[in-house]
Specification:
With 433 residues, this protein is of the alpha+beta class. It has 10 helices and 18 strands. Among the domains are: 131-222, Thrombin, subunit H (Beta Barrel); 232-329, Beta Barrel (Thrombin, subunit H), CATH 2.40.10; 340-428, PDZ domain (Pdz3 Domain, Roll). It has helices at residues 2-12, 29-69, 89-97, 112-129, 174-177, 218-222, 319-330, 347-352, 369-373, 392-400; strands spanning 133-143, 149-163, 167-173, 182-186, 192-201, 206-212, 240-247, 250-268, 271-281, 287-291, 297-301, 313-318, 340-344, 359-364, 380-384, 387-388, 407-416, 419-428. Mean pLDDT is 84; it is low at 84-96.
Length: 433
């Protein structure tokens, strides 16, 4: 047995075992750095491409989002009497050919109760319009001489101009809501909600507020409605109107009266606003809306124009003159401006001073687009981007057709000792702050 073991040991002594050891490959630092550099370059290129794509696509994405979330507000514009197309001869002949109808009327003596019923119906119109009127309160935190904190309140009236599935839009006085900490809107049913500024115009002094619909309860929704904006260009002396708003310290007050004058004008940058004067009592603190007997808003009573309320009576700014501005602000857009103060050349001035029919420039704002373009005081604007300009309404319509940063080709007549000269001025439409 031992002989076999020794024999096996002798046999194994003739073999050498090979042990293989795997050695790790040394790191090539050059290749690692090259790979890292390539990956870094690819990452930068990818980031630049992604960033560029996002920037290019963002405006279109925003348009789609805004189109879905915030419907565009459109307010039909009114035409002045001298812009309404006259009837054709054919229509006149047809009207003449229609025989006149004989109407037999019976005279009826009105009683006191009839007058009371009529007054009640008139005030029902005002009560319905009150659903579109709100009280706007601006709150500002202040401190007194002893560093004690208190909250100051500023109140005015606003009018609801649009209600959609996303927001309620309200037009109000800008002076009340500037430099304040919060805004509270109180509806006609005494329900309150916080509001925020959507857009404002410093020149006109009006602001559009928005109230997100998610803040509005069903109870509040039932008590409000958007106002119907009427045509104030057809308002004449003697027209029966009502003032709805804040008068003599009373909110949601209703007062009836008549228009005493409708030809007054107040000049602001790039616009002339018609003033509707009434015999309705009021003061410098009055605010609200002027409505006709259809319940349509025909004027805004703004504290910014309190000087118009002469003799303790109420005056309002024509709503037809403000519609284009309200539409612009309601859509969150800046108002296009050129920076001139002007007025329509009257027929009397046209004949007396031999001035061309158009818009007379009474002043040019410093560093405004018009001044940079070369428009001067005393010029008469006769064309705007090829369109004939006969009055301030034509000028405003042509201006609102221009996009911001768009070019406005203004043709003016300039008068001097040697006569008149036609000059072309090229201006860039801006949003004046």
């Amino acid at each position: 047995m031992s002989d076999k073991i020794e024999k096996n040991q002798d046999d194994t002594e003739g073999f050498d075992f090979i042990r293989e050891k795997i050695k790790e490959k040394p790191i090539n630092r050059k290749k690692v750095l090259i790979g890292f550099g390539l990956n870094l370059i690819f990452a930068i290129v990818f980031g630049l491409v992604a960033c560029t794509t996002f920037l290019l696509a963002k405006p279109y994405i925003n348009k789609l989002i805004n189109k879905t979330e915030n419907p565009t507000i459109s307010i039909p514009q009114d035409k002045m009497d001298d812009e309404i197309t006259e009837e054709t001869p054919d229509q006149t002949e047809q009207e003449k050919s229609v025989p006149e109808q004989v109407i037999i009327t019976n005279t009826q003596q009105l009683q006191t109760v009839d007058y009371e019923n009529l007054q009640s119906e008139i005030y029902d119109i005002g009560a319905e319009a009150n659903r579109s009127v709100v009280t706007v309160t601006g709150l500002r935190k202040e401190t007194d001489l002893f560093d004690a904190a208190y909250q100051n309140e500023f109140k005015t009236t606003g009018v609801i101009i649009a209600v959609n599935q996303h927001e309620i839009l309200i037009v109000t006085d800008k002076s009340i809501v500037e430099n304040i900490d919060s805004i509270i809107v109180t509806f006609s049913n005494d329900k309150c909600v916080n509001a925020e500024i959507k857009k404002y115009d410093t020149t006109l002094g009006i602001t559009v507020l928005r109230v997100p619909m998610e803040k509005i309860s069903e109870e509040v929704k039932e008590g409000i409605k958007a106002a119907t904006l009427g045509n104030s260009y057809v308002v004449r002396q003697g027209t029966t109107v009502m003032a709805v708003g804040n008068f003599c310290g009373t909110t949601h007050a209703i007062a009836q009266g008549n228009v005493t004058a409708s030809s007054g004008k107040v000049s602001v940058v790039d616009a002339n606003l018609t003033v509707l004067s009434t015999n309705i009592p009021g003061d410098s603190k009055s605010s609200g809306v002027l409505i006709n007997m259809k319940g349509e808003v025909i004027g805004l009573i703004l504290k910014n124009y309190s000087a118009l309320n002469s003799g303790n009576t109420t005056a309002a700014v024509s709503i037809s003159d403000l519609k284009a501005y309200i539409e612009c602000l309601s859509n969150g857009q800046d108002v296009p401006r050129l920076g001139i103060s002007a007025l329509t050349v009257s027929e009397e001035a046209e004949h007396q001073y031999q001035v061309t029919k158009g818009v007379y420039v009474s002043d040019v704002a410093l560093d405004s687009p018009s001044m940079i373009a070369g428009v001067q005081r005393g010029d008469v604007i006769i064309k705007f981007n090829g369109e004939k300009i006969l009055n301030m309404n034509h000028y405003k319509e042509a201006l609102f057709k221009c996009p911001l940063e768009g070019q406005a080709k203004i043709t003016v007549m300039r008068y001097g000792p040697e006569g008149s000269t036609q000059i072309e001025c090229n201006a860039i439409v801006k949003a004046l702050k």
